[in-house]
Amino acid sequence: MNQTLEGIDSLTLNITDEIHVQASLEATFAAILEEMGPYNRGGEGQPMPMKLEAWPGGRWYRDLGGENGHFWGQVQAIKRPSLLEITGPLFMSSAVVSNVQYRLSEKAGGTLIQFRHTAFGVIEERYRANAPNGWRGLQVRIQRRAEAGR
Q1: Environment class of residue 22 by beta-carbon count within 10 Å: exposed (0-12), middle (13-18) or buried (19+)?
Q2: Coil, helix or strand for 4?
Q3: Reported pTM
Q4: pLDDT of residue 55
C-alpha cells in the first residue's frame, strides 16, 4: 500500500467573487436559477442543461435521461431573492463536499452578488485549475441574463 500525506491546503478550495448587476434583486435571482438550471453551459460553452429544484432539500443535477445523470448537490438554504446555498460534490467525482453560496443585496442601481465556493476533500488538480474559470463564465452569463431582462 502506498500512502501520500499532503498538507491541508491540498484538501481545500476557496473561491470568492463579487458581481455587480444592473438589475433588480428579483431579476438577478431568477437569472441565477435559470443559468444554473436549464441554460447552464459546460466548459467549452456547450449546452449542459441542469435541473435545479429550487426549494430546501431540492436537488441540483444533470439529467441525461433514462434514469442516468450526475448529482451535483442539494439546496441547503434558499431565501428568495437574497440567498441560494447548495452543498454537495458538484462537478467533482471524488471524496469531496462543497458549499456554494449566492448572497444578493441591493446596491445603488442594481444588485451585488457575493459568491463563495468552498470545498474540502480529495480535490484533483484539474478541478482546482478549472473551477475559477468555470464559475466566472457562469457569473458572466447570470449578469447578462439579468441585465437583459431588467
Answers
A1: middle
A2: coil
A3: 0.92
A4: 98
127 secondary structure, DSSP code: H
pLDDT per position as a tens digit, 69-128: 999 999 999 999 999 999 999 999 999 999 999 999 999 889 999 999 999 999 999 999
Cβ within 8 Å of residue 62, ≥6 positions away: 48, 49, 50, 51, 69, 70, 72
Task: Tell me which residue has cell 449566492.
Answer: 102
In the chain, the domains with their CATH numbers are 13-148 (3.30.530.20)
C-alpha span between 54 and 84 (Å, rounded): 9
Of 121, 128, 102, whose CA–CA distance to 113 is shortest? 102
